[in-house]
Amino acid sequence: MNNKQRLPFERGNLNKVERDSRKVNCVKFNTNNSLAHELTKAKVAFFLQKCGKKFLTECKFCDGSGEADVYCISDDVCYEITHSETREHALAKKYPVSEIRVIKSNKLRRCDLE
Predict the structure, then answer these.
(1) In the 8-state DSSP scheme, what is residue 51?
(2) Nearest Cα to Cα of residue 80 among 32, 52, 44
(3) What's this model's pTM, rounded to 2 decimal places?
């Protein structure tokens, strides 16, 4: 996808989330989560930004389907970080995205993001 195609694609994905969740490439922490969960989220954000991708963290979808840990608007992919939650529960979420990828906290591999 070239830049001329990418910008409208990212804008469309950005419109899927509530206005107050639209801080692009900004990592928001949730102190109700474990430290391992939050550090893994920060690592996901770091690698996405290093690859030149745009992301949102702790973003709420307009359709009321929930709040994603990390949403890559460049790829339309949500990254759900699990600590005590099961993989199946994370994959069962009905976000308006093309794909949900589950990452176990403290188990992030670079290939999980490709």
Answers:
(1) T
(2) 44
(3) 0.91
